[in-house]
Amino acid sequence: MLPLRFPPSFRQNTMSRIPALLIVGVLAFSASAAAQTDLWKLAQKHADTHRFSTLFTAQQVTSDLANDNDIDQAIQWCREMGITKVYLETFRTQHWAESETIAHARDRFRKAGFLVSGCVTTTRVGKISTGWNLISCYTAEETQQQTKQIFEFTAGLFDEIMIDDFWFTDCQCDQCEKARAAERVVVDGKTFDVDGDQWSDYRRELMLQVSKNLVLKPAREVNPNVSVIIKYPQWYDNFQERGYDVVRQTQVFDQTWVGTEIRDEFDERWGGRGRTTAYFLQSWVEGLSGRKCGGGWYDTLGTTPATYLSQARQTILGGANESMLFNAGNLRFKDPGRSDAEALRKALPELLQLAKQVRKRQAIGVTMYKPPNSDGENDRRVFEFVGMMGIPFVTTDRFPNDADAAFFSVHALHDADFVKKLAQFLQTKRPVILTDSLAQKIAGDIDLSGKHVSILTFDGRMENAYSLPAKELSMLRDVVLKPLNLSITAPQRTAIYCYSDGSWVVENFNDQRIQVTINGRSQSVEANHWASQWMEQR
């Protein structure tokens, strides 16, 4: 990796700025303490702060909730897990759960004190895509009509419906190709113009109009009280390519959710992602959606108990009000689901306390800018790896004019006025970090020679974010954290979350214990674990 470019020297800031507040010790709950706690009562008590939920897929509704004995066992398991809300799926991969089975399970769960909502997973609906064989061609009338039927059916059973994150298309059939070239979308017999001839242009308009005309409109005609949730996937760099439009769809849907899955980065099938994906994406969608954002959804694929708990923590740290544990069948009957579920059950008291503490505070850090519908090119996935460098970050979908320090990647070029805005930002001498790919693209248009400009060299490999030598990383932190009145010493593969009152959380992704110092206060953090310090608020 080429060296980081940074100012040649910078005095370490060791400010201590909140002497009147008292440090509360690191959150730590033992397994025995969790075992002695009635998690059902505890979860109900904290439900307004953060709620844990789970989902029974359409297939599981049929197989696991078909009689009262099975429902009793499912209710008991949810109570023991501290789960206070369940989602019952009506459709997935051409499987329709029977309305009588759904209604009976819904009523039993409600009678037992649970909140109950519906869910739809739009896999293998109507005509199948020429791409992934789970995905559908929404240009096709048969797909459109079955989509309408699914949501009319579901709205007749529930006042709240979540759409799992298969609500996209990658089809390039002849019918799609002709419509794309003509820059025209036809949905439910109505024609809509498309602004552009790229696949991303066509698919975003297509899925927006299908959402409005074949999901929201028919669902509300059946049930005027229905609230429909769009859940955005984990793969944020590809949203626009497959038809997600996070601005316009967020406007038309009643709520947003987001997939906050974190995989073990060395897993042969699911690895290759950074360990702070959940925090970045949850906080970014929260900022974009405002009060519409309801929560984060994570699963057991490619996880260990450590990575599973990291999903839970980061979903909460990102601001979610609810965590969806996908799915009940995997968590109850399969591995690694059972071990993941047991780890979360033991950690539930500390996670609820974490949510309580986070809710009271304002996060601070270097501001990461990702405009909506932006492609990172060589910088894809960069945010989740930079988040492991022991530098606190916050996120935004708008240019961070008021940020104390900022991080910019190629994604920023989706903002047509970015270079002009950056030039104005640099005139203030506030520190910025740029990726090498972005710096190369704009070097001829803007002066990047200032001492407050640091350029991280990735050479197209995001993993290089945490291979920066310790001395250079320390100097980078000194530069970018000075305006935030923060001084941090920590190794690579560490995530740090800071708050305006001096509180903080540390996640250690290393396989050995580490020592972290924040504003002169040191803390040892066990391997693949976390620690926190909270300032008592008066």
TrEMBL record:
Keyword Signal assigned to the entry: answer is yes
What UniProt keywords apply to this chain's record, in alphabetical order? Signal
Stretch forming the signal peptide:
1-35
User: What is this protein's name?
Assistant: Glycoside hydrolase family 42 N-terminal domain-containing protein
